[in-house]
Amino acid sequence: MRALHWDEINPLTGTAYTWDDSNLFFGADGLGYAREPGDPDFVPYPTPATPLNPPSAKSKKMKHQAYYPTNAATQIVWLENFRNKLTAHAPTLGISGADSTAAIADARWLIYVLGTWLPAVRAWQKSCTDAAKQAQLGSMGVVMVLPVFVAPALPAGVVAVNDGALNRIFGIIQLMKGSAAYTEAIGTDLGVIGSQQTAPDFALLQPSISATLAGPNKVDIDWGWEGYAAFLDACEIQVDRGSGWMLLTIDTTPGYTDTAPHPAVLTKWKYRAIYHVDDAQVGLWSAEVSVTVGG
User: Fold this and answer.
1) Half-sphere exposure of 15 (CA within 13 A, CB side)
2) 125-150 exposure pattern, b = at least 16 Cβ within 10 A, e = fewer
3) Is residue 92 a contact partner of residue 86, using CB atoms and an 8 Å limit?
4) pLDDT tens readout for residues 132-143
5) Residues 274, 51, 234, 30: is their CA dihedral positive or negative?
6) What does the DSSP 8-state code read for residue 115?
7) Which has the closest alpha carbon to 267: 293, 238, 240?
8) To 5 degrees, how large is the angle CA 63–CA 65–CA 70?
């Protein structure tokens, strides 16, 4: 039995779950669940289960990483560069004046939020912490005035915009990259080409997993991409509940909870995992991990 998430793909059929699926039900906790092979009342699907493809060799390739920085300081630098150079490149790439102006407004708003408003919030939070300490332990002999946050004024020309400003900027960039006039030189000037990363050796790639008993009928399976998310599609997890290995899930988001009912007697469940690319297994199986359930 596994917990369901919206728009999830059924790993046993390769298609989305449907409302009339007889293996779907609501638990006592109000959450949705799907029965799996071996569960009581499981109804086999007319289509075959997802085949366990043998590992296949994958060619190494170069792939661009995300071009947007990960920390606020460098994000501000990136946004400043983008807004300053967009006007010059927009006509060449077929971006209208209105869209260019809107993207620049989005960038300027984000620069304010990240570079002015957020540091002010953090400074205010520190003053609140200091005030709380003074209220408890201070010895100045004065009536306290608690700090009140006042947002810094918007710089000239900066206006508040609708949420999702960065998504709109990414949308403009996607349009520009689709233009016949787009070149790598333009991309480099705008800062929209990420650094290149060499693909891993798929033959040696191996997930690292752990299994933890998280409560009644819950085993948390922790897994990650090992730094290669850009090159991998999914992680296949199998379970052995005492009768051999069987498919548990093909997961695309790190971390999975096995919600199969625990047996009445103490039993060791084993788990293993392997990565997928293009619907095929790649690399090596993880080391097996186990938990004792039931009893």
Assistant:
1) 9
2) eeeeeeeeeeeeeeeeeeeeeeeeee
3) no
4) 889 998 888 889
5) negative
6) I
7) 293
8) 170
Q: Collapse the DSSP code of 199 into the 3-class scheme (helix H, G, I; strand E, B; otherwise coil) and give the result.
A: coil
Q: How many residues does the chain have?
A: 295
Strand partners, 222: 210
64 vs 195: CA distance, rounded Å: 6
Q: pLDDT, tens digit, for every residue of 41-95?
A: 778 866 444 433 443 333 333 343 468 887 888 999 999 999 999 999 999 999 9
What CA–CA distances, in Å, run from 1 to 27, 239, 261? Answer: 11, 12, 7
Output the pLDDT for position 137: 87
Q: 129 in helix, strand or coil? A: helix
What's the one-letter identity of residue 46? Answer: P
* CA angle, 12 then 276 then 23, to 5°: 15
CA 176 – CA 183 distance, rounded (Å): 10
3-state helix, strand, coil in the chain (%, to 5): 30, 20, 50
Cα distance between residue 290 and residue 74, in whole Å = 43
Q: Which residue has tokens 């990565």?
A: 275
Judge contact between 191 and 78, C-beta under 8 A. Answer: yes
Instruction: Please tell me the distance from the alpha carbon of residue 212 to that of residue 221, in angstroms, as a whole number.
Output: 7
Local confidence band at 288 (pLDDT 50, 70, 90 cut-offs): very high
User: Dihedral, CA atoms, 246, 17, 210, 215, nearest 10 degrees?
Assistant: -100
From residue 212, alpha-carbon distances to 9, 224, 247, 288 in Å are: 25, 15, 19, 13
- pTM exceeds 0.85 for this model: no
